[in-house]
Design a protein that fits this description.
This is Fibronectin type-III domain-containing protein. Pfam families: fn3 (PF00041), PHYHIP_C (PF19281). It comes from Muntiacus reevesi. The chain is of the alpha+beta class. The chain folds into 2 domains: 105 residues, Immunoglobulins (Immunoglobulin-like), CATH 2.60.40; 185 residues, no CATH class. The chain is built from 5 helices and 22 strands. Strands 12-13-20-16-15-17 form a 6-stranded mixed β-sheet. A hairpin with a 5-residue loop joins strand 6 and strand 7.
Length: 361
């Protein structure tokens, strides 16, 4: 595409960029009114690591423009990504090209993040200095979530370490006794879906958006049963696997992450076919073959459904519909409540090579 301009921002260009930038701030190098000032800036085609930008300019001296200076900055807020590379310049120099132009780069763009952008036109002189315009107005925008393409990259990375499959027969959910008492008293005995927290990948399209109920299915290697310890509470709801995962449900890959630990988490979503959760996932997440994938399978053998889960990753399964407690049992576990293993709002390790892809974290 002719309008696709990749702005390769690498450290070797930092000093050049800074020199250009400092010169543009020097009021003595040029009369700013000589070049048209960009106005009516428009941002479009926003992805998790790119966007298109265009603007209008007066025709006066327009033919003298050789470069654009783009001031791209992260809008700081209380939830800002503290892991953003701080040594990479975000004041970009690009050759003047037909608009709109594409700004792309995983070094300085992160998914689901608010940015501000302003533009300046410039004319490079024979001595290497620049004549520059005044700055445009400042525009704000927010980058998008991971697309299915990005999630498929995460999926492929997760498949590498999933390990062999172990048989299981129940899904389970640990909570405090008060949680189950509240469900019985206020929700007619049915656990209700709630909005997923912001744990996992920063660009995950399910964080803060998908409604569901978290379940686990991991088993102990030596017993084949659920572990007796839990980070979420001493009371456990157990339900037969076929009640949640069967030929009338679809299975989706949601995320792959770790929390500065050696073990990794995979988030899967189970949604009844045609349900609101199913429609949400169908548009945003890679769908898995329920009978043949590396994480969680449901197969018919001798007239019965048989279930297996991956051994070497911790599966977090989200079921998108309400679940009545009468479909299973609630009992107190005999193990410990290991709060250190909780993933509630846990942030992903942005430096892990196993579970990160080459876009914003």
């Amino acid at each position: 595409m002719n309008d696709l301009i990749r702005l390769q921002i690498i450290k070797s260009l930092t000093t050049i960029t800074e020199r250009v930038w400092n010169k543009s701030q020097d009021s003595g190098i040029a009369e700013m009114e000589e070049l048209p000032v960009p106005h009516n800036i428009k941002i479009s085609n926003i992805t998790c690591d790119s966007f298109k930008i265009s603007w209008e300019m007066d025709s006066k001296s327009k033919d003298r423009i050789t470069h654009y200076f783009i001031d791209l900055n992260k809008k700081e807020n209380k939830n800002s990504n503290k892991f953003k590379h701080k040594d990479v310049p975000t004041k970009l120099v690009a050759k003047a090209v037909p608009l709109p132009m594409t700004v792309r780069g995983h070094w300085f763009l992160s998914p689901r993040t608010e940015y501000t952008v302003a533009v300046q036109t410039a004319s490079k002189q024979v001595d290497g200095d620049y004549v520059v315009s005044e700055w445009s107005e400042i525009i704000e925008f927010c980058t998008a979530d991971y697309s299915k393409v990005h999630l498929t990259q995460l999926l492929e990375k997760a498949e590498v370490i999933a390990g062999r499959m172990l048989k299981f027969s129940v899904f389970y959910r640990n909570q405090h006794k008060e949680y189950f008492d509240y469900i019985r008293e206020h929700h007619g005995n049915a656990m209700q879906p709630s909005v997923k927290d912001n744990s996992g990948s920063h660009g995950s399209p399910i964080s803060g958006k998908l409604e569901g109920i978290f379940f686990s299915c991991s088993t102990e290697f030596n017993t084949g049963k659920p572990p007796q310890d839990s980070p979420y509470g001493r009371y456990r709801f157990e339900i037969a696997a076929e009640k949640l995962f069967n030929p009338n449900t679809n299975l989706y890959f949601g995320d792959f992450y770790c929390m500065y630990t050696a073990y990794h988490y995979v988030i899967l979503v189970i949604a009844p076919v045609g349900s609101p959760g199913d429609e949400f996932c169908k548009q945003r997440l890679p769908q898995l073959n329920s009978q043949d994938n590396k994480f969680l399978t449901c197969r018919e053998e001798d007239g019965m459904l048989v279930y297996h889960h991956a051994q070497d990753v911790i599966l977090e399964v989200i079921y998108t519909d309400p679940v009545d407690l009468s479909l299973g049992t609630v009992a107190e576990i005999t193990g410990h409540q290991l709060m250190s293993l909780s993933t509630a709002n846990a942030k992903k390790d942005p430096s892990c090579k196993t579970c990160n892809i080459s876009v914003g974290r």
